[in-house]
Amino acid sequence: MCITIATTDHPDYSFILLSNRDEFFKRPTMPAQFKQVKDHDKVLAPLDLARPEHGTWIGVTTSGKLAVLVNYRDMDTQSTMKQVSRGILPLNYLESTKTDDEWRDSFSINMQNGNNPLDLKSIGGFTLLYGSLKISPGDGIDHLNILSNKGHHGRVFEKNKQSQRLEKHDHISTKSTFGLSNSLYNDPWKKVELGEQMLKELVSRSIGTHLTQEELVEQCFYLLSHDTYNRSIMKQHDFDVKVLELRNSIFIPPLEREGPESNSASIGDYYGTRTQTIILLDKAGNLNYYERNLHSSDVREVDKPLITSSLRIMPFEVLSTEPETRVYHSPPVSPSASNNDILIMIPGNPGLVGYYITYLDYIQKAIPQFEVFGIDYLGFNKLPTTKQQHIYTVEEQINHNYLVIKHKIEQQQQQPTKPSFYFLSHSLGGFITQRTIKKLLEDDDLKGKFQVKFNGMITPTISNIAGSESGTKFTKMINARIPVVGIAMTFGTVFSYIPESAQRYLLKRQWTVPKQVIEEGANHENVGLENSLETTVELINSPSAINQALNMAKDEMNVITTSDEINDWLFTSGSDTFQNWCFFAQQDHWVSNQTRDHLITKYGNVDPGRNKFEICQNVENPIKHAFVLNQSKEFAEITINRICKAMKRWD
What we know:
Blueprint: E1 3-7, E2 13-24, E3 29-38, E4 41-48, E5 58-61, E6 65-71, H1 88-95, H2 100-113, E7 126-132, E8 135-136, E9 140-141, E10 144-148, E11 154-156, H3 170-173, E12 177-180, H4 190-209, H5 213-224, H6 231-234, H7 239-244, E13 255-256, E14 270-282, E15 287-293, E16 307-313, E17 316-319, E18 325-330, E19 341-346, H8 357-366, E20 371-375, H9 394-411, E21 420-426, H10 428-441, E22 451-458, H11 469-479, H12 484-496, H13 500-511, H14 515-519, H15 529-540, H16 543-559, H17 565-572, E23 579-584, H18 593-603, E24 611-615, H19 632-646
Parallel strand pairs: 19-20, 19-21, 21-22, 22-23, 23-24
Antiparallel strand pairs: 1-2, 1-12, 2-14, 3-4, 4-5, 5-6, 6-7, 7-10, 8-9, 10-11, 13-14, 14-15, 15-16, 17-18, 18-20
C-alpha cells in the first residue's frame, strides 16, 4: 500500500514530496532514468517491467511536470489486476503536449463513455496527483490536480480559495500538506494522517534547526521509514490479514507470503516498502530527485550496499521563438518594488547554459532581487539526423540574442519600473554580448525602455582567437583539411552507445580534483560538477549539437580578428555609462597572453571609473577558462564582489 505526502510549507522549498512504493520484491523494476520525449524535454521516472506497458508510479519532466500514481485498494482483490496497466497514466501525462485541463477532460469523457483509445474502464482503480511545478514569484507553486476513477476529481495546494472549479472537498484543495494512499483521497487512512502530521513537524523542526538540504533529505527518508506495523499481525499465516494492516503504517517491513510458489513475475515470497522517493523544488526552481531502492530481489534482507541516487532537473523554459530557444529562467527570490534587475547570461561555445546554473544560483542567492535569464545558443537541440542541418553562424547567434532580449524588454513594459540589465558572458559569449548590447542600444524602438548597468566578460575571446594556443592548433587542423567535425561526431556516436550512468562515471573521474589536493587545503569543492556532467552528457549524445559546436568554432576563427572597432566602442564611448568588467585567467589556451595584455594596455586606464580589467591573482587555485566544471562557487564569490563594486564605480 503506497503512500505519498507533500507540502508547500517550507520557506526554502516551494514543494517537497515523499513517496513509498510498497510492492512484491520479486516484481521487476528499473530505477529512475531519463527518457527523451521532445527536443528539449526529458522524463525522469522508474519503470515497472512486470507489465508490457512498462509504466511507472512516479515521474517528473525537465520542463517541471509531475505525476504520482497510487492504486485504489479494491475489497475484491480479483478486480485489482485489469486489462491495461495503471502505470501508463503517469507516463501518458508526462509525455503529453496538452494542457492539464485538456488532458484531464479527455480522460473524464473517456471514463463516462469508454469510446477513446484508452478506456479507463479497463484500468484498475487509481488516484493520480499531477500538474506543473512552475513557480509563481513570491507565491510558490500554483496548484496540483487530482484525477481518480473511483472518486471525485479535484485540486490541492490551491492558492485561489474562490476557485469556481472546486465544488467538493474545498477543505482539501487549500491544504498546504497533503497525503495520498490507496483509499479515496478525501477519506484518508491512518497512515496518511500520521504522515501529514509528521511532515508538518519535520518542516517546523528543519526551519528551527536550519537543516541543510542533505540533512533535510536524510530526515525525509527517516520519516518514510517510520514503521508502526503491528508485529503480532506479521505472524499471521493469512496474507490478506497482513494486507489489511498496511493502512496503518507509513513503512511496510518485509511481509512473507506463505503458500505455493507463484508463477507470476509480479508475485513473490516477500512484500513491503521497496522504493523510496523524495522530490525537492527550491525557490529558484531547481528540482532535486532522490531515489532509494531497498529491495531488488525476493529476499527479506535490504540490498547492500543501499543505493541512493540523486538527480537534478534544471528549470529550463522553451521560448516560442523561431526557431525555439531554451532558456534557464529563475524568478527573483526576493523581488524588489523599486528595481527590476535582470541578470542575463550568455554562455561560451558549446552554447548550453546548463553549464552555468550552479554559478548563477550562487549569484542569485547573494543578490536575491535578480531575475536570472540564461540563453542557449541556436543549433544545440538534439536532431534525429545531421543531414541538411542548418549550422548557425556567430552573426546569427548575435542577432538571435538581440531578438530574444528585445522581446524580453517589450514584455517588461507592463512592469512599474523599466528593466535594468546585468550581463555576464563567457568566452565567445563576450564577443556576442558586446554586439548584442550595441544592437539593443541603437534600436530606436527600445529607446528609454531599458538600461544596461553592468557588463561582465569572463575569459572573453573578443580579439584574435586564432592567435591563442588552442586557436592556432585548431586552425592548423582545419588548414590541413583534417576532418575535425567528422572525427568528433564519430567519437560522440560511439560514446553514445555507452550507458549514460557509465558516461557520468568516466567524466566525473576526469574532472574531479584529486583527494590529496583537497586535503592539502586548496579550496577545491567541485561545486558545479553535477550540472556540468548532465550538460556534457546531453551534448555528447547529440551529434547535431557537436556538429553545431565545432562548425561554429571554425566560424569563430574567421570573425574574431584583431579588429578593435567594437572594443573601442565598448570601453571608450562616453555615451553609455554602464560598468564593464573583464576577468582573465593567468594562463588561457583560448586567450593568448599577448592578446590579453594588448586589451589591458589599450583600455585599462581609459576610464577606470567604468572599466575594470583583472587577471586572476589566486596562485594556489587559479580560476580556469572552464571554471564551470568545478569552480562555480569560487568564481561566483568573485563575481558577486565585482558586481557590488561596479555599482560604486570600482571604488
